[in-house]
Specification:
- Helix content is 66%, strand content 0%.
- Helix 4 packs antiparallel against helix 5.
- The radius of gyration is 29 Å and the shape is elongated.
């Protein structure tokens, strides 16, 4: 069915349609990676307990908590990519709606050329040339709307995308550094047969590391260079507000039949600036020893 929708897409929007579909597959892969990472975190905790070594059990238990949180960040990343993908759809839908305008202009032009060749004195030429003037005027507006929405939404989409990449990277680096702090607490001094290892004395330190990791996630804030936009005065007809005020009307209908997850009008769609789910609010210490079943 998805391949059939791709065939039905207007020529102008086929490339972006393919990109959007590919991103959907990529998002699914990140969601799958999140689930696998959380599952592995549970397994490492269970394994540590099964070793019978108190030190290994305590450290692996807390490593599992941090690994589970890393998996949650993959899921958050996937959600943020979906926001970026929805902005790309607005460009795709506008491309789809501009295609008929281009086709109509080309059709009339072709018919005029044929008529000039077959019947150069035909009275229909004047009528068709008038139709061509109207078609060119409509296409001129549609092309301006397309370039306006393309530039604006391209910046918006990849602003979201790059911000999501940075958030995921910085939070996962933060968690990985705390994992390394945990590993420093495990004494790996070799023993000879018959020796008894001392009991684990760093339980409180290990627990504090989890507290520190949780606090760092909660305190994390993005530090990004702003992506400026001069499109703030664009009206609902995808033209500058000065044109809207002068009575300009939109010729583009962005409702495209048969498109995957189509939206009605890119000019009326609010930017997907919805509040992101804060997975860092989970209490890591409460997860400790609970097997991290998600």
């Amino acid at each position: 069915m998805a391949s059939l929708r791709g065939v039905q897409q207007p020529e102008l929007s086929k490339k972006l349609f393919k990109i959007i579909k590919s991103e959907n597959h990529a998002i699914g892969a990140y969601e799958s990676a999140s689930r696998e990472r959380i599952s592995i975190a549970s397994q490492i905790s269970d394994w540590g307990e099964a070793t019978g070594d108190d030190s290994v059990s305590d450290i692996s238990d807390k490593l599992g908590v941090l690994m589970s949180e890393i998996g949650e960040q993959e899921d958050l990343f996937a959600q943020n990519l979906e926001d970026y993908r929805s902005v790309l759809k607005q460009i795709r839908n506008t491309e789809s709606s501009v295609q008929p305008s281009r086709d109509n202009k080309a059709k009339i032009t072709d018919e005029i050329q044929k008529l000039k060749y077959k019947e150069p004195q035909s009275t229909k030429l004047t009528q068709m040339e008038q139709e061509l003037v109207r078609a060119e005027a409509q296409n001129l507006v549609a092309e301006a709307q397309l370039t306006n929405i393309t530039r604006q939404k391209l910046k918006e989409a990849y602003d979201l995308h790059s911000a999501a990449v940075i958030e995921r990277a910085e939070k996962q680096v933060l968690l990985a550094r705390h994992m390394r702090r945990l590993l420093q607490l495990l004494d790996d001094t070799p023993v000879v047969p018959g020796d008894v290892r001392p009991s684990f004395e760093h339980g409180s330190q290990a627990r504090q590391i989890l507290n520190d990791a949780e606090e760092d996630l909660r305190a994390w804030e993005p530090s990004l260079d702003a992506v400026p936009s001069a499109a703030t005065d664009m009206g609902t007809n995808l033209m500058p507000s000065s044109v809207t005020g002068a009575g300009g009307t939109s010729t583009v209908d962005t409702s495209v039949a048969g498109g995957e997850e189509q939206v009605t009008s890119p000019a009326q769609i609010e930017s997907p600036d919805k509040e992101r789910r804060d997975v860092s609010g989970s209490t890591m210490v409460q997860q400790e020893g609970a097997g991290y079943q998600q």
